[in-house]
Specification:
The chain is α+β, with helices and mostly antiparallel strands and 299 residues long. Among the domains are: 53 residues; 130 residues, Ankyrin repeat-containing domain (Serine Threonine Protein Phosphatase 5, Tetratricopeptide repeat), CATH 1.25.40.20. Helix content is 38%, strand content 13%. Strands 6-5-4-3-7 form a 5-stranded antiparallel sheet. Strands 1-2 form a two-stranded antiparallel ribbon. The radius of gyration is 34 Å and the shape is elongated. The termini are far apart. Keywords: ANK repeat, Coiled coil, Repeat.
């Protein structure tokens, strides 16, 4: 230990006890003062960091609130039909009224030649892309529609396949998840494809899988997304445009009989898929879809 004295620095054994004691006391005081200063600086730094973190959290919360307030909140599956028909004017009115551009409308139909029902998801963007309405696609993209929503085909057994709006622009009337006998003619709607690619759209094969749905006998709360083919008890729904009410009432009185429908295909007993399709099945026009209800987009 070196001690400063009027005669200059000296070792501790070179000074008297009084000088040594004073030096030790002064050193202890200096160390204590240094510790206090360091603690004060640390506390000030932590307080400043906490304040910055709080300001950042408040800023994020405010940004999220502003986005939520700016985001359309009305879930109206009816705009899917407007997009499919190419009704730009009415669709623009609905979007300006606060309708969310990302919404799903359900297309229930029956497999040709049987009575097994399926449900296709359609977003306004996918429906417009399949129909080739470039003006509608542009309007929806301006309204911040998500081009990467994955639409799915589902049955009571779960999901089948998925497709995106970009897939629909390439396949047109043909379902993107089915075999396309005229694949050499893709893309069916090149102008729509260009619009979607410019917006960063991707095919379903490059996107994450859609959330799984509940299956027959299981309630909707047991899966990330409710199965549109099932009701809240996990039992098959019976859309009025596919199933005759009188026949359904009779079936409920006699539960063992096949679950038949009167449309071009169906849901229920798999053996009914061997039945021949209705005679007028070939008269069904392209894109003649019947939408029954809908939901928000699940991701």
């Amino acid at each position: 230990m070196i001690i400063d004295t009027p005669e200059g620095p000296k070792f501790e054994w070179e000074v008297d006890e009084e000088t040594l004691a004073a030096a030790i006391a002064e050193m202890s005081a200096s160390q204590e003062e240094a510790r206090e200063k360091m603690a004060a600086r640390k506390a000030a730094t932590e307080a400043a960091r906490a304040q910055l973190e709080q300001q950042a959290a408040e800023k994020r919360a405010l940004s999220a609130l502003e986005k939520a307030q700016a985001r359309p909140s009305i879930v109206d599956p009816g705009i899917v039909a407007l997009a499919e028909r190419g009704d730009v004017e009415r669709l623009a009115e609905r979007l300006q009224a606060g309708c969310c551009p990302d919404v799903i409308a359900f297309e229930f139909d029956l497999y040709p030649g049987g009575a097994r029902m399926f449900c296709n998801d359609w977003t306004p963007l996918a429906a417009a892309a399949a129909a080739g309405h470039a003006a509608v696609v542009g309007l929806l993209l301006e309204a911040r529609a998500d081009p990467d929503v994955v639409c799915c085909a589902s049955t009571s057994s779960g999901l089948y396949r998925g497709w995106s709006a970009l897939d629909c622009a390439r396949t047109g009337d043909a379902m993107p998840c089915e075999r396309d006998p005229q694949r050499d003619k893709q893309p069916r709607h090149p102008e729509v494809e260009r619009l979607l690619l410019a917006a960063g759209a991707r095919p379903a094969s490059a996107l994450p899988e859609a959330p799984r749905v509940n299956t027959y006998g299981y309630k909707p709360g047991e899966a990330p997304r409710p199965n549109p083919c099932l009701n809240e008890q996990g039992q098959p729904v019976r859309p009025a445009h596919l199933y005759d009410a009188a026949e359904e009432a009779e079936r409920q009185r006699h539960p063992g009989q096949p679950k038949l429908g009167f449309g071009t295909g169906g849901s229920g007993c798999p053996m009914t898929s061997m039945m021949p399709p209705p005679k007028d099945w070939h008269l069904k026009a392209p894109r003649e879809r019947t939408y029954t209800g809908g939901s928000k987009v699940y991701k």
